[in-house]
Fold each of these.
Amino acid sequence: TAPLNVLLIIVDDLRPSLGCYGDKLVRSPNIDQLASHSLLFQNAFAQQAVCAPSRVSFLTGRRPDTTRLYDFHSYWRVHAGNFSTIPQYFKENGYVTMSVGKVFHPGISSNYSDDSPYSWSIPPYHPSSEKYENAKVRMRDPASPSLVPLLKERQPGVFVCFSPKEFQKLYPLENMTLAPDPQVPAGLPSVAYNPWMDIRQREDVQALNLSVPYGPIPVDFQRKIRQSYFASVSYLDTQVGHLLSALDDFQLANSTIVAFVSDHGWALGEHGEWAKYSNFDVTTRVPLMFYVPGKTAPLPEAGEKLFPYIDPFDSVLELTEPGRQVTDLVELLSLSPTLSGLAGLQVPPRCPIPSFHVERCREGQSLVKHFRFQDLEEDPYFRG
Amino acid sequence: NPRESIAYSQYPRPADSPQWNSDKPSLKDIKVMGYSIRTIDYRYTVWVGFNPHDFLANFSDVHAGELYFVGSDPLQDHNMYNDSQGRDLPRSLMP
């Protein structure tokens, strides 16, 4: 009957290239393990495929047309309406809320404060290595430790570091596939095309002298970009593994909801596009899963580890049993009412139109109905 | 209820053709907004005129459209929008 903790893991730029989403190439054993204990949404979509608008949208539960944030240059509370956020709602309901790393997009879009103090009980924590996020690095080598003076930084219970280059070894270039449709489709309207200008500005991409806006990237270089992306995914997986393993260590796995999401997808050569910035499914489709103790998986027994760390470098990785899955289309916008409902808080009412004057309401649906499993309800162990 | 299995997305553009700020246009430069609706069967997108001063999209000012059917074209490479013109989607499915 005690309130459940909530651990919300928000990954930047992660498309569902994960084992639990059927990807045979990518090594993501720790996220797959989380999925095996979770309810996984196969068809979840972001509302706008770029960081700040997407994050503000799902953290406030409003569409970009309501937050009026389509770029990076305004703060919704001033620019659109004083909308509440997910962490703010929990904070106002007695939770201690904490932010580590990039939850809100930094800068004016979160008032240069990660929306503190509205959303957070203590000041948000940022690793000092974050300032290297946009440091001068090559496109196909975003993970070189030699470029990062501070590889690790510790805060009690927090472990953050850059993605080491060694993870590229998991993806030999000779095994690297290309996008199945690397050409710009003939019938694609020019307005729909994303010319991936930020990628073109990377030093090593500039050296390729690509024609703008449609010039394709040479095939060998495409393989290297894909190799680096997948290496980053596996690195991220180890960080998620350490984090979830800590839940076990602190015996919190039986009292913590874990939600795992990304802010949007990423094109890896599909339709001749790279990065995000479009309406294609590859840039809007995101991983979305919820672990709810005793609901999506049995409560761990005393001493049992639900999330033991798995090393993606282990030569033989056991196949993880998939967990429960939902194929219905859902929106990232649903995160806010769903977390509220799962935690036992009152789900905010649907927003009127317009809703600029309403501090707390939801434009998305609660997904809680998907967590009613008939077989579990009939299972005396789960009922207990 | 068809609205229960629909996902909407949108993306702004400064112009009809790709240019240096097409990826991340500032609000003042947004001229076109692409609104998408997705179902399990298709994605339908209309790129319409957008006024950044009053934040209003003009659905009478259609710049371009996209229509992809999941069953026959899961990767979204064959835009069927021009083949579908004159056959409006049900109004209940519009954003």
Note: DSSP finds one helix and four strands in chain B.
Amino acid sequence: ARHSWNDTKVEWYTIPVGLGILVVALSHLRKRDSSTSATSAAANEEKLIRPMGAWQVQVLSTLPLKALSYYWGVFNEIPLPTFLRVPGFKLYAWIFGVNLSEVGEDDLRSYRNLAEFFYRRLKPGVRPIDPRPGAVVSPADGRVLQFGEVHAGGLVEQVKGMTYSLDALLGAPASGTDTSPNPAELVKRKLEGKSVETQARYGKGGDADREVTHVASDEEFANVNGISYTLPSLLSGDKDAHNASGDETPQDVSLPQHTTTSAVATVGRDLARGSWWSGSSGDKRLYFAVVYLAPGDYHRFHSPVNWVVERRRHFAGELYSVSPWLQSRLPGLFTLNERVVLLGRWKYGMFSMTPVGATNVGSIKINFDRELRTNSLTHDATKADSEGGYAEAVYRGASALLGGHPVPKGMEIGGFNLG
Amino acid sequence: STVVLVFEAPAPGPDGKGGFRFTVERGQYIKVGEALGVV
């Protein structure tokens, strides 16, 4: 090879100028054709949500985020050796600014791994709930990234002017023919001594639901979910609603979750007081608020108001990071990520709360929804797609009177788990 | 992780009084139970 390389004579020829111009012209024509065909294809093609934006986003969207998140969770569930737990969690607390004095367990060794420490509870009394009846309180510890009014046409501003549509976030509005009885009417009919029929729909939305119709007996009204309260108390809202054992459950978020004995009464009182299901009198607006939880924050979320959760929609999307940096660069981020939409009503009308997952916290738990599975590698796409991209569960069976799950303000609803 | 709230609430009256109003600032750190806004 060396011999032939050294001895072969190199001869140089000049390229005819015409040929050079022809090659440049041809490449220019080809480029122009490809750009015109791309624009025409894009014009008539349905605009797909494709994560565009900064180059870092493009890199992100090539990663197997769900698999990364899933195995991140598996890794964090490996029990730590006891001697490592205290220094390990103190290091984590120092890096991410965790206030260890609020952590539920004084002995950090009781948390077997980071996943348990991440999903810790807080000490009783460290998160008092704003008592004002019209207050919407924060569902979680974190930073208020965005808030405001939903623009006409259902556009919600994400961060820095990026907007996304409400329908994309929550799914299409629930079917208008909602047959749920107007509970305020039910209560009033009961007071007039009329019989009341209530339907309870069991099962998940979209499945063959069993409609169960029965006449609500006096006992049922007086003893829904273990409550023994008188109907006038439900309407007047005075404090004689109590649970079977007679004690008033304190409003304290540190409780694992409010004992449901006071839940229905608390929400029921609100229900009967406001012009509940027909919405409040006068003009109403649609508002939104976005709270971002950093890695060191307490990761359980609580109810912002007294409301009834009627249905849940699980969108098994991607798991991009939801850091403020990415939120300001990836349009429609919240409509791309895995999320669990809780839809229901409060005394002024519609109310929804949507925990949105992220790469390191792919698993979302809802305490009263054992069937929910998020961040699963084997996602049941067919079912979700058949229902507009989400799997829906209806909670009407939870409380026939209220037509859903009653969650008083401050009650723990669920939380984000690692992985 | 992030929690997004979307809800209906009474609009402020013609005089700008009443109705729902936010009581937080953008970027503010908030804890469970503290008011985001009030009717």
Note: DSSP finds 14 helices and 17 strands in chain A.
